[in-house]
Amino acid sequence: MEYKPTIEDVAKLANVSIATVSRVINNQGGVRKVTEDRIVNAINELGYIRSAVARSMKRKETNTIGIIVPDITNPFFPHVVAGIEQKAREKGYYTILSSTNESPIIEEEIVKIFIERGVDGVIITTANESGDHIKLLQDQGIPIVAVDRAIKNFEVDTVLVDNVNGAYQAVRQLILQGHEKIAIICGPQSTTPGRERYLGYKKALEEYNIPLDESLVYQGDFMENSGYRGALHLFYSKVRPTAIFSSNNQMTIGCVKALTELDWKLGEEVSFIGFDDVEIATFIKPKLSVVSRPMTTIGEIAFQLVYDRIHFKENLPKREYLLTPELKIRESCHKI
Amino acid sequence: MEYKPTIEDVAKLANVSIATVSRVINNQGGVRKVTEDRIVNAINELGYIRSAVARSMKRKETNTIGIIVPDITNPFFPHVVAGIEQKAREKGYYTILSSTNESPIIEEEIVKIFIERGVDGVIITTANESGDHIKLLQDQGIPIVAVDRAIKNFEVDTVLVDNVNGAYQAVRQLILQGHEKIAIICGPQSTTPGRERYLGYKKALEEYNIPLDESLVYQGDFMENSGYRGALHLFYSKVRPTAIFSSNNQMTIGCVKALTELDWKLGEEVSFIGFDDVEIATFIKPKLSVVSRPMTTIGEIAFQLVYDRIHFKENLPKREYLLTPELKIRESCHKI
DNA sequence: TCGAAAAATCTAAACGTTTACATTTAGGAT
DNA sequence: ATCCTAAATGTAAACGTTTAGATTTTTCGA
Q1: What are the backbone dihedrals phi and psi of residue B118, each rounded to the nearest 5 degrees, phi first?
Q2: Integer Cα distance of B200 and B162 in angstroms
Q3: SS3 for A49-71, per residue?
Q4: What span, in angstroms and rounded, lies between the C-alpha atoms of B179 and A111?
Q5: Which of A109, A97, A95, A103 is nearest to A70 (CA)?
Q6: CB of B106 within 8 A of CB of B126?
Q7: For B79, left (φ over 0), alpha (ψ -120 to 50), or beta?
Q8: Alpha-carbon distance A186 to B44, whole Å?
Q9: Contact yes or no for A85 and B98 at CB 8 A
């Protein structure tokens, strides 16, 4: 059956005009039951499937939303994507997904392709917060939603997690347990999450009148290795901390590796809380306490935002969601 | 700039016909340098971006390939997808991704949508190995590549991993270390991976003349919980095994949880090898030995297969890739 | 039974490309 | 200058829908 029947074939077989067929395909009503039946039969008989591209051509909408993530293999994103997809399918939308490997160049390329393909909206965790390359999208009037990382030079809807608050909660927890020498392994200060989590750390210390000790601040880059080096560094620093806060999942992993190798006893000699839940958290002994983000929910909200924007283009103010992360206390913190 | 310039606007501005513009857009040559320059200028001036949907309409190809996976949050798939994407982008293809949550119903729905959208090819890890719902695709002449799970009732290109061999290698390793009471936690025997991994287990035992002891065979379902229960079961069974082979990553995780709780000392009292690498493998002590699959490569090959099939539709025989997994010996095996 | 209003159906144009084929132009040989 | 050929450019149809507006059919009250 290599030949693809078109709406015209259906019309012919059912002895009606293509307009009528179109009406029943899109069930717009205004077609007599008997005619409809005839058409439906014809459709089944021919195995007709309507061409989405012809439809998009006429309608000037593709029911597709583009998703851009920096790294599809980072477990955070598949969960977000799952949330988006779920909601999207419910509304008859489909997603086209691309991963930039944190490269702004690739990101720009993808943006261009997405425009060519006529996506109705874009959900993006950008590799370049300046957002200049996003301008193209805005020029075309394509709704954008930024997830996890804000976009500077444009007004776009965003769904972020309250990084400051999450870090604050974590560090406060450590303080309340009596810790005073609390270290942080930071993310890059050029990114919003990196900066904000550091801010939360400082805020907690301030609030409890603990002076900030620069030697307990290690600059990482969100990669596993820097977590590893961070832990090493802290272990051998002049003031050995009694607690560590790690700014993201990958660094947490590196950190734990180092602790094990150093035989620096987690939960006994050093307390630990990491930002973002990680699979290993409940495996290692003691179980890791973490700041956890509602990943699927983030995706769901993001979709809702583009969806709204697609359907009510006008007079929607910029909307910003700020979800509160949850502190999951497990076993890696000890009282002092 | 809400108005989208079309090829016609460009033609008008450059004072040529749309045919000529089309020629330079697709750089087909046969256009004088001076005309080309004029056209390129016009394009830039207007910010013209060609409509992929109009193009697809005429060309009857979308340069899109659909990917269907059972569970996007299972770490195996994002890696495969990354491999596909990488190669696809190189060839000017884009991917549209959907996750079925292991539901054949959703899968069928997605297949339908993919056809509507005119994907040029499909890469699928099916939730229903019978493959009856795939028939639709085949009817439309859309190339299909099955990944990780074979499809029964149709001839499609496949890229699988040699499950038998992988399991065989793992179990042989255990045997060579002196183990004789080797248990297996099986996957569902209704799935190819489940069956084949069990086969590999049996093959190794046979080869070394170790009788199969049914009480050391635990039936799991690839879910974490069944790994957990499996370990428990084996611990309390009349013949306690000295080694365990687990048939997939999730069950490995459950298993390790149980071992920890039982205080059944990994690498001392019981050796362990699991199918598929897991993130925790190198965290826990001792580090887990695993059978590891080349996930990105799988994706790359899968794309190559659809690509070939798209471009040389005729006379390509069915191709089957069978990648050999690699045994990664770490620390969870001990000599006896 | 007739006519008017309402409901159903049809006609044809449009969406933005690509491409076969027709036409024009350029430029060298005579 | 003229002609011829090859190169450059143009014309128009087609791809498969949706949809406004025109037309036909049905329905129903008088």
Answers
A1: 70, 35
A2: 9
A3: CCCHHHHHHHHCCCCEEEEEECC
A4: 56
A5: A103
A6: no
A7: alpha
A8: 43
A9: yes
User: What is the helix (H) or strand (E) element at residue A157, kind and residue range?
Assistant: strand A157-161
CB of B62 within 8 Å of a chain A CB? The answer is yes
Contact of B121 with B145, CB cutoff 8 Å: yes
Q: What is the mean pLDDT of chain B?
A: 92
By Cβ distance, the residue of A79, A253, A280 closest to B73 is A79
Terminal Cα-to-Cα distance of chain B (whole angstroms): 75
Average pLDDT score over residue span B8-17: 94
- Cis (ω within 30 of 0) for the bond into A286? yes
CA distance to partner chain B, nearest, from residue A51 (Å): 5
Q: Are B203 and B162 a contacting pair, CB within 8 Å?
A: no
For residue A15, say whether its CB is under 7 Å from any atom of strand C: yes
Give the chain B residue whose CA is nearest to the CA of A296.
Answer: B73
CB neighbours of B22 closer than 8 A, spacing ≥ 6? B7
Backbone angles phi, psi at B79, to 5 degrees: -70, -40
pLDDT tops 70 at residue B109: yes
- Give Rg (Cα) of chain A: 26
Chunked into runs of 10 residues, chain A (336 residues) has average pLDDT values of: 84 94 92 93 95 95 95 88 94 92 90 95 91 87 94 91 96 96 94 93 97 95 92 94 94 92 93 90 86 96 96 84 94 84
The answer to whether the CB atoms of B96 and A98 lie below 8 A apart is: no
Q: At what angle do helices B295-311 and B76-90 cross, to 10 degrees?
A: 40
Give the pLDDT score at B61. Answer: 94
Show the tokens assigned to B14: 């450059």
Q: What is the DSSP letter of A279?
A: G
DSSP sequence for B149-214: S--SSS--EEEEE-HHHHHHHHHHHHHHTT---EEEEE--TTSHHHHHHHHHHHHHHHHTTPPP-G
Interface of B with A in 189-248 (CB under 8 A): none
Partners of B50 on chain A (C-beta within 8 Å) are 116
How many helices (H) and strands (E) in chain B? 12, 12
> CA of B99: how far to CAs of B67, B123, B265, B291, in Å?
8, 12, 38, 25
Query: pLDDT tens digits for B183-221?
Result: 999 998 988 899 999 999 999 999 999 999 999 999 998
Bases in strand D with any atom closer than 7 Å to a protein CB: 7-12, 14-21
pLDDT band at B2 (very low <50, low <70, confident <90, very high): low
Burial label, B90 (beta-carbon count in 10 A; 0-12, 13-18, 19+): exposed
Q: How far apart are CA A319 and CA A306, in angstroms?
A: 11
DSSP letter at B140 equals: T
Alpha carbons within 13 angstroms on the beta-carbon side of residue A210 total 20
Amino acid at residue number A101: N
- Distance C13 C1' – A18 CA (angstroms): 14
Q: Is the pLDDT of residue B315 over 80?
A: no
Helix (H) or strand (E) holding B301: helix B295-311
Q: Is the CB of B265 under 7 A from strand C?
A: no
Residue B65 region by backbone torsions, left for phi larger than 0, else alpha for psi between -120 and 50, else beta: beta
Q: Which positions in chain A touch B140 (Cβ < 8 Å)?
A: 1-2, 4, 49
Give the CA A78 to C1' C17 distance in Å: 36
